[in-house]
Automatic annotation (TrEMBL):
Protein name per its UniProtKB record: mannan endo-1,4-beta-mannosidase
Span of the signal peptide: 1-18
Family: Belongs to the glycosyl hydrolase 5 (cellulase A) family.
Keywords from the named record: Glycosidase, Hydrolase, Secreted, Signal
A Pfam family hit: GH5_mannosidase
Subcellular location(s) of the protein: Secreted
The protein's Enzyme Commission number: 3.2.1.78
GO biological process: mannan catabolic process
Upper classification of the organism: Eukaryota, Fungi, Dikarya, Ascomycota, Pezizomycotina
Residue span(s) of domain CBM1: 18-54
GO molecular function, one term: mannan endo-1,4-beta-mannosidase activity
Nucleotide-binding among keywords: no
Annotated catalysed reactions: Random hydrolysis of (1->4)-beta-D-mannosidic linkages in mannans, galactomannans and glucomannans
Amino acid sequence: MKFSSFISASSALAVATAQQTAYGQCGGVNWTGATTCVSGYYCFYQNAYYSQCIPGTASTTAAATTSTQASSSTLSTVSTSKTSSSSTTSSAASSTTSAITSYAKTSGSVFTINGKTEYWMGTNAYYIGFLTNNADVDLIMSHLASTGLKVLRVWGFNDVTSTPSSGTVWFQSFVSGASPVINTGTDGLQRLDYVVQSAEAHGISLIINFVNNWTDYGGMAAYCTYYGISPVTGWYTSTAAQAQYQAYIAAVVARYKTSTAVFAWELANEPRCSGCDTSVITNWITTTSKYIKSLDSNHMVTIGDEGFGLTTGSDGSYPYTTGPGLNFTTNLAISTIDFGTYHLYPSSWGEVDTWGNGWITAHATAAAAIGKPVIMEEYGSLTHADEEPWQATVLSTETAGDLYWQYGDDLSTGETNDDGYAIYYGSTEYATIVTAHAAAMLAKAV
Ligand SMILES: *[C@@H]1O[C@H](CO)[C@@H](O)[C@H](O)[C@H]1NC(C)=O
Ligand SMILES: *[C@@H]1O[C@H](CO)[C@@H](O)[C@H](O)[C@H]1NC(C)=O
Ligand SMILES: *[C@@H]1O[C@H](CO)[C@@H](O)[C@H](O)[C@H]1NC(C)=O
């Protein structure tokens, strides 16, 4: 079931001489298919579970024969191909000098970014890695920088269940009857490469997320359909789904392991496991965060959860309960998690906007007790002015940073999508809710 009819047919003929097609799998634990690639491609070792045919020529020993770990020469192959692919593009971000010269790290209840320990504001532009025009990416980065926003959260996943036509960006496919494919091509992770490169040039730090709880851009459901996992909460404990999820993480981490523009790796967007014991998600966080740290000790790791399951400051309302399958304090205490995240959407949770102030205070208090920073990494009200009292609460509590949902701008393709929460660069409310608050955060004394 995991093997496509193409592979079965060719292995029946002669496995040893068959050549894998572009972007096809060519190695990994228990892989029995082709281990060499068609002309113009070579077998690139990503991790023990996955090698893939990517464009170019191997500068080292055939990747598929590398057994247990990515060598530094393999990694330098990645950065070389990254540099050469980006050097074919002309843009403001082609400078190789990074505006950020050190890795971001925690410093008590706050962070040190590029040598500066300060509070900051950021935002979300989940879509930036899916843009096909480099100038649009650079425009957003330059606007973030001139606004004084420090951290941008983006989707580092884009899972599809059928292979889109050329020109549509996707990062990983789960096509029934074929092996999962990690797309490192020009419509694939090379788009994320450009985001990282532009962030480096503009001094913006990135939170890069690996999978969605929701079905937008595939998510856990894409894995579950492919592997026959039902209900979807089985994703967290499925060996097959977790092996592929880790293969995907390894592929992304290998590309930016030495980039100082990466602020943190993030396990998932809004993971929930309704009806599950909280140990299910806690175990998954422990395993995955340890795995990422084993691949990359340079960068921080965080969860990407909404902050559910909190005794501190609880008013007994649903978000404070463990109903969605999470215990905020237990998860934040995991040693391989560097800082906490939570989101704030009172209207989606059956609460009024003023309820949000207690939510912010409760998380700040809980995180301080554990001794790690916490960020409000998504927040939004359809009445944008209601976000201002929340920002005042952020400033008066021990909250390291806040990232509003979501950044809007006017690109070559027109205005970015508005889900009702977008605040557009250059608008009147951008000045009051974004520019003014960004300045207030940076001005707050540490
Ligand atoms: C590889 O095959 C062995 C033997 O069938 C099995 O025990 C092991 O779980 C497989 N490994 C993976 C990663 O599928
Ligand atoms: C994502 O969250 C929703 C809402 O709780 C839930 O229905 C769905 O099952 C979640 N996904 C997974 C994989 O549990
Ligand atoms: C989270 O787990 C801790 C430790 O077991 C427990 O004290 C706390 O009450 C739990 N939180 C919730 C909201 O149940």
